[in-house]
Amino acid sequence: MTSQLRLVRIDDRLIHGQVAIGWVKTIKIQHLVVADDAVAKDSMQICLMEMATPPGLGITICPVAEAGSVCNREEVDGKRILMLFSSSGDVCRAVENGLFLKELNIGGMRYSPGKKQITKAVAIDEHDAEHFRKLLGYKVKIQIQMLPMDEPVDIQKYI
Amino acid sequence: MTQIIVAAHGDLAQELVKTVGMIMGNQPDLEHISLEAHEGIEDLRRKIETILKPEGCLMLVDMFGGTPSNVALALSHQYPIRVLAGANLPMLIEALVHRALMDIAQLARFVEAKGKKSIFYANPAFSNCSCEKEGDE
User: Fold this and answer.
1) Residue A40 has pLDDT above 70, yes or no
2) Domain locations in chain A?
């Protein structure tokens, strides 16, 4: 199996313009993976994700716990993959279930009460910080970067 | 890099360029020209001539028959300008993504085709998708 995980990203909007256009075209992604429990069991959301997938790309939607094994599926064989999660906790859970991760991109984590806005598109709370520390402990490099042309910023100084 | 100029009535051009930046980041050789309520043909012509690169540009105008479109077409006799009417966000994205891969005339044709495909009644497309899904499962 030769699929390549080119980008693993936390983006609470999952597939949207910045992902479908900004990242997919720049790093020549061929397959999107959405690892999200809520989406995986909601046929309407599955449908929206499929419609938001740029033409020519494949899409796999799976529960978080299956994120690690997706890379071995036939449909992604030989493909350059972009994998999306909607939260830091999901990424942690995926890693604990066997996802091998070297780098994590943080795109969008929307503000909600109790969270601290750390960049224009990223707000985190103590749970997120805890998840990131855990991932750093697994030697995952974590950077905030909304678009490919933005300067990546290491998460360390915020947690 | 082929220059792209968006020209439109009011603030539309400026906002289209600003919005595409939100999706793709800031882009080089992408300009916008506004036709304000108090301005006329000469103002617009001057604005275009000021920013136009000598090797020409692809111009996205808001509406065929409007002043930005009329002025751009008039200038296309004098300068290597290709004009696309009916500018929308998907067209601007396609133009930016593909401009390095083709010449201006090819780009105009390509973006025209993409623009036409970008317009459709979305509800039926959405319900077809749901039906397929249910059939699959």
Assistant:
1) yes
2) 4-158
pLDDT for residue A2? 62
Q: Would residue A127 show up in a list of annotated catalytic residues for this protein?
A: no
B15-28 confidence digits (pLDDT tens)? 999 999 999 999 99
Residues of chain A in contact with residue B133, where contact means CB-CB under 8 angstroms, are 43, 46-47, 50
Q: In what order do the strands lie in the sheet with A80-85?
A: A58-62, A31-35, A80-85, A4-11, A103-108, A141-144, A153-154
Q: At what angle do helices B67-75 and B41-51 cross, to 10 degrees?
A: 50
- pLDDT value of position B127: 81
ipTM associated with this complex: 0.72
Q: State the architecture of B3-136 in CATH terms.
A: 3-Layer(aba) Sandwich (3.40)
Query: Looking at the complex, does the CB of residue B113 fall below 8 Å from at least one CB of chain A?
Result: no
Q: How is chain B split into domains, by residue range?
A: 3-136
Q: Which of A50, A51, A147 sits opposite B25 (nearest CB)?
A: A147
- Distance (Å, whole) CA A67 – CA A90: 10
| pLDDT at residue B137 in the model | 41
Closest Cα of chain B to A73: distance in Å? 19
Domain A4-158, CATH: 3.40.35.10
Q: Which pLDDT tens digit goes with each residue over A49-61? A: 999 999 999 999 9
